[in-house]
Amino acid sequence: MSKDFPRFITELTPRFTAVIDAEFSEEDYIAIDLSAENSALSLVDITSASSFGGFINEYLRRSGKKVAYGGYKEIRKLYQRSGLFSEPGEKDLERNVHIGMDFWADAGTAVLAALDGKIHSFKDNASFGDYGPTIILEHEYHEHTFYTLYGHLSRKSLENLKYGDEVKSGQKIGALGTAEENGDYAPHLHFQVIEDLQEQAGDFPGVTSVNELDFYLRNCPDPNLLLKIRRVEG
């Protein structure tokens, strides 16, 4: 992995870049704290996609915004509900650090390619708490190959896809899925930048343990270096 990768992706885009509905302006976005430190979440049943979605929707209603975003390097309790993120008796291996960026909006909201690229792989990661339908794009800029991952999509998003198909920046590649198809979450996009895909296809960890955090932070830098959303607090 290149130590210059974060700077490299920063230089690819000069301004705000959307990965969901192109009709949303940057002013429609607001940051949200879903970390274990947010005491407001203690009043929410985080095991319920409906309850969690209600919390998100109320947050957006009060703010007057349309998209809640954030989550990079955030330690969350949300993943405790699924055995997918832990090993029995191995507390140090619990995966609870989020290494992508989430965009919370209505199911059906369009998902857009962040950059020119091609379809690398796709898969319905259908386990409880997983990504659900997922698309990975491959990008090559200045002889440097890297990837972007789009998780929690609708199942229809995977229809008629072909490996190697070219996509353009801003092109619609799918839509946000419902809880019934996206791994049982309130509707949102998990967006992640990955330098080394480690020979995986249609899937890549979006949450890691503290023990492996250094590797994943190097391999998966903050997506906002690419997207450049000005932070607005709720």
Automatic annotation (TrEMBL):
This is Peptidoglycan DD-metalloendopeptidase family protein. It comes from Salegentibacter chungangensis. Keywords: Signal. Coiled coil: none annotated. The keyword Signal applies. Pfam families: Peptidase_M23. PANTHER family: L-ALA--D-GLU ENDOPEPTIDASE (PTHR21666:SF289), PEPTIDASE-RELATED (PTHR21666). The lineage of its organism: Bacteria, Pseudomonadati, Bacteroidota, Flavobacteriia, Flavobacteriales. InterPro entries: Cell_wall_metabolism_enzyme, Dup_hybrid_motif, M23ase_b-sheet_dom. Residues 97-196 form the M23ase beta-sheet core domain.
